[in-house]
Design brief:
Elements lengths: L6 H15 L11 H8 L1 H35 L1 H9 L4 H29 L1 H4 L11 H27 L3 H7 L1
Helix pairs in contact: 3-7, 4-8, 5-7
Amino acid sequence: MRTTREPHSLLPEVQAAVRRLDTRVPVGDPRAMDDIVQASLSPQAIGGALISAFAVGALLLSAMGLFGVISGSVTRRRHELAVRLALGADHRHALCLVLKEGALLVAMGLLIGAPGIYLANRLIGGLLVGVSPSDPVTLLASALGLLLVTMAACYVPARRALRIDPAQLLRHE
């Protein structure tokens, strides 16, 4: 039945009215249509939550891996960075140098992984509700999000590169 009131508040009145009309009619499990629709969409919601959780986990793992790679690169290149800073390179230039390295790694990963998106369309197409697997806005937002996480993961090793005291490092080696 249609109502402008809260459906759950009407359930006792509806059950009583049905019993008054005919006591032989069983009143089983009356539910509001919103509850029925919500229950039918529950598997998709659970699947979406699981996919989101795995995606966040994968993003964190990739950020940690990228942090490790860039951190190792900064450690190996600290002499080069020290020479650059000693010869007059400003800290902003050294910061951009390290950040560009991380951005280059992610850009190469995106270029290598882009064909995989279109190959996986058939696999994930049934799991997505309301979004196409090849939606350009979603793909662009994902790439920008990955780039943002990349810059955050590369910033810490880049800041460490800026703390290099060129005179002390070159004198020590």
